[in-house]
Design brief:
Length: about 180
Amino acid sequence: MHTIGGREPLGICGSGVVDLLAGLVAAGIVDAGGRLRPHPRVRRSAEGPGLEYLVAPGARGDIVFTQHDVRSLQLAKAAIASGAKLLLAEAALRPEQLDQVMVAGAFGNELDVDNALAIGLLPAVPRERVAFVGNAAGVGAQMALIDVDERRAMAALAGEIEFLDLATDPGFHEVFTGELGFH
C-alpha cells in the first residue's frame, strides 16, 4: 500500500478505490458478481449491516472497503462501460478497432490503466492505447478564448458530433446489467 506523501493512511482516494477493487477481484475476495467473499480481512461491518474488508488501521480509525463501496463502484463501472459499449455499437466498431481511448479529468491523473482495464472500467484495448489528457475541458476553454481559429475548428467539430441519449436507448438496461459483473 502506498499513501500520498508516504504518511499514515487516512482514507482511500478515487484511483485507489479502482486499484483496491481490482486487487480484491484478482484475489477472489470480491467475486464476479461483486460480493465480498470469506477472507481473514473480511468482517461484519461495524457501521451497519453487511461486510467490509479491512484495508489498514488508520490514524482516525480502521480504513475499510465495504460491500456498499463495492456496489457503488460496480454501478459506476457498469454505467461507464455501457456507455462505451453502446457508442461503439452505434459506430459499428469493436474495442480492438480503437486507435486510442482518452481519459480526461483529474480522476485519470493517478488511474492505473491495468487495474481500470481489469475491472472493465475502460474498453478492452491494449494498455498502450489508453491516453490521459488531463483537464481537457479547461484546456479547450483556454484554447477557445485565446485563438479564433481554434474556435472555428471547435464549431465545425460540434456540427459533426451526434448525440446518443443513453437514458432513452432501448438496449441500455440490458447492456448495463451485463456490465455489472467483473469478468
